[in-house]
Amino acid sequence: MDFSYSEEQQMLQDSISKFVAQDYDFDTRKKIIQTPEGFSTENWKLFADLGWLMVPFGEADGGLGGSATDLMVVMEELGKGIVVEPYLACVVMAGGLVAELGSEQQKQEILGPVMAGERQLAFAFAEAQGRYNLADVGVRAQQQGDDWIVDGHKAVVLNGEAAEQLVVSVRTAGDRTDAAGISLLVIDAGAPGVTRKGYQTVDGQRAAEVTFDRVTVPAGAVLGPVDQALPAIEKVIDRATLAVCAEAVGAMEVTYKKTVEYTKTRKQFGVPLAKFQALQHRMAEMFMEYELARSMLLMAAMQLDASDGLAPKAVSAAKNRIGKAARLIGQEAVQLHGGIGVTEELDIGHYFKRLTTIQFIFGSGDYHLQRYQQ
Amino acid sequence: MNIDLSPAELDFQAQVRQFLEEKLPSHYSDRVLKGLYLKKEEYIDWQKTLYQQGWAATNWPVEHGGTGWTPTQKYIWANECAEAGAPDVIPFGMKMVAPVIYTYGNDEQKERFLPDILASNVWWCQGYSEPNAGSDLASLKTTAVRDGDDYLVNGTKTWTTLGHYGDWIFCLVRTGRPEEKNQEAISFLLIDMTTPGITVSPIITLDGHREVNEVHFDNVRVPVANRVGEEGGGWTYAKVLLTHERTGIARVANSKRSLRQLKKLAAETGDGGATLMENPSFAQKITEVEFDLMALEYTELRTLAAVSTGKAPGPESSILKIKGTEVAQAIDELYVEMAGYYSLPFVKEQFEPDFAGEPVGPGMAADSAPHYFNNRKASIYGGSNEIQKNIICKAVLGL
Ligand SMILES: Cc1cc2nc3c(=O)[nH]c(=O)nc-3n(C[C@H](O)[C@H](O)[C@H](O)COP(=O)(O)OP(=O)(O)OC[C@H]3O[C@@H](n4cnc5c(N)ncnc54)[C@H](O)[C@@H]3O)c2cc1C
């Protein structure tokens, strides 16, 4: 048992932490969000140059090793700045699937440009009827000669607008909720019949509704075994879930600390708010929730890197418990800030928003509670 | 004790239903039921409809044009309006400043201001809070210095809800000398917002909406005749008004409608082969909120019965504020949870009154998160929930 970071992990943490502190202040983020792309391509290039985009990939694929702990280090730091660049969607989710299932050729063709910061990917999996059930796949792909013909609609595809290629879960056999019969296709976002309706999300990121209307996809675009993609999807979504847990923990740390600072400076009734014991206890509660959340995060990261098959349960436990902490810390931070907390002007409301969406991405607390119980 | 409605009350209920059916335009109620805002003119239009019916001022005494309804009638009215999706009556004129004017104003002020409030000819807003005077309202700094028959007003008010729509603003200002005790130097002024020296600038809330404003006063000339009551009496008047504000804030009828709608939608929302309503965890949360709401409703009814004599509600009204906002916020969260991934899209155009396109996601999903974010305000304004607990400790528990 060892809770300390390796030298490489420490360096990685320092470099991201420095970036967030120096180059990603609240006003910068605000400007980035308002651009049509919704993130900074310059920052993305920087992430590539600094090697951050290589972190979650194995050395054999040209990456830096790809442990869950490494990924956690990256995401926790990004969370401190509520960074909107699409690390999660492009690198962890879609990139993760290519790494997991792709042929050597696919990996070379796709992951090389991804790690170089030259290609954007997204993973289109959610569907309107499916809630969090990854096996609920209604988008159909039917074989026609050597090609697949794809029809259907994917909901809230994170980074779906900027992506040049979409990894799409499709039903190639069986009924809509069968575990077997799900395949993955890599589809060019510009292919005829693909329509994307992009929008901002409530947390300042971007996503898209993606519709496939008789889209022809060549056989070479299938990722991994036909009909048998679900286990890999579950594995990658578990890692992505860990990633948002880490992001949340980073965001929570900043949120509770900023709240403590604010109450020390804001005066009412002639004293700083921090003097009111009713508020002190609330902040003590926030602090404890943060610490418990961080413990759950480390637990889940270590379980993912261990090899005894407990990972899905560990991830669900962490997601549920961290979601609870994210809820409390976000709500309390706003409340303790008073009116200024519900405005766009101050960063605290934006942390609150991201802490809210993370509670529901990849499954609500209830979903993970029930998954754990199964 | 008896909870049944009398035959006369049942008649009244039927009358209200018929009125709402005939007079409430569906393009208003559709938006209200989706939790969306109306245009300024639409709020006014609806209030004028109420005025024509003689139902504009449900909280005023009859002599000034109020309905003179019993608590039961008010309860029926609130429930039927919520159920039908009637727009909220903007409270600042009708529910906040009017009671101060008819209670503490002189005859001339009553004649001058009340008819226009009743007929919704004038949009009022509330100018109490300042950047450094929130919970500690009595520390407000905006000054009004006597200059002949006028006051010269200087300072900044903030959080002014819909101040950009405002024709008039009622303000607490400091008229006394600085060495006087905080509360005894505060006066209550009515200010025409077209007076030179007033600027209104927007503050955008977490739902991306312009709901609140800063209002700056730079040597604004206000006739002394616009002061309500005594110089230095403003704090007492404002406190009375705040207790009125607190009961309204419980919003029991709205929460009931909102919860019923949530249950209906949850029963239509798929969840792993069944519906969300059949998910035991979600169903349990809904039921728990429902119990809280029942407890709140009967607490409100008790309070209403107690104040039926026209007295201002006592410190118990703090319960309604705290628990009412907690219930409303719990329901807000359940909507976000129900929306799942579709709580994420933020397509702002969709919330505009003139939006004619196809919304992203199923009904109610689009506004779920923005509404949840925005309504965190409910436990902050009108005297924050912490301040309400302080009131309970002091005034009720004697601590
Ligand atoms: C959307 C919105 C609309 C509003 N509309 C209006 C309006 O139209 N007109 C108007 O005049 N005002 C309006 N307000 C202002 C509102 O009344 C104030 O926000 C409120 O009084 C709180 O003040 P504050 O925001 O300065 O917070 P602060 O007073 O700074 O409080 C910050 C936190 O400290 C807590 N706190 C403060 N004192 C104590 C204490 N003694 N013990 C324990 N906890 C304490 C508070 O509860 C809060 O959680 C509005 C506010 C909002 C958010």
TrEMBL record, chain A:
Cofactor requirement: FAD
InterPro entries attached to this UniProt entry: Acyl-CoA_Oxase/DH_mid-dom, Acyl-CoA_Oxase/DH_mid-dom_sf, AcylCo_DH-like_C, AcylCo_DH/oxidase_C, AcylCoA_DH/ox_N, AcylCoA_DH/ox_N_sf, AcylCoA_DH/oxidase_NM_dom_sf
Domain called Acyl-CoA dehydrogenase/oxidase C-terminal: residue spans: 233-370
One Gene Ontology molecular-function label: acyl-CoA dehydrogenase activity
Domain Acyl-CoA oxidase/dehydrogenase middle, residue spans: 122-215
UniProt superkingdom: Bacteria
Flavoprotein found in the keyword field: yes
A family per Pfam: Acyl-CoA_dh_M
Domain Acyl-CoA dehydrogenase/oxidase N-terminal stretches: 6-118
Keywords, in A-Z order: FAD, Flavoprotein, Oxidoreductase
Similarity section: Belongs to the acyl-CoA dehydrogenase family.
Protein name, as recorded: Pimeloyl-CoA dehydrogenase small subunit
Taxonomic source organism: Exilibacterium tricleocarpae
Automatic annotation (TrEMBL), chain B:
Domain Acyl-CoA dehydrogenase/oxidase C-terminal: 232-396
Listed Pfam families: Acyl-CoA_dh_1, Acyl-CoA_dh_M, Acyl-CoA_dh_N
UniProt xrefs under InterPro entries: Acyl-CoA_Oxase/DH_mid-dom (IPR006091), Acyl-CoA_Oxase/DH_mid-dom_sf (IPR046373), AcylCo_DH-like_C (IPR036250), AcylCo_DH/oxidase_C (IPR009075), AcylCoA_DH/ox_N (IPR013786), AcylCoA_DH/ox_N_sf (IPR037069), AcylCoA_DH/oxidase_NM_dom_sf (IPR009100), Mycobact_Acyl-CoA_DH (IPR052161)
GO molecular function: flavin adenine dinucleotide binding; oxidoreductase activity, acting on the CH-CH group of donors
Ranges that cross the membrane: none
Keyword annotations of the record: FAD, Flavoprotein, Oxidoreductase
Gene Ontology CC: plasma membrane
Name of the protein in question: Pimeloyl-CoA dehydrogenase large subunit
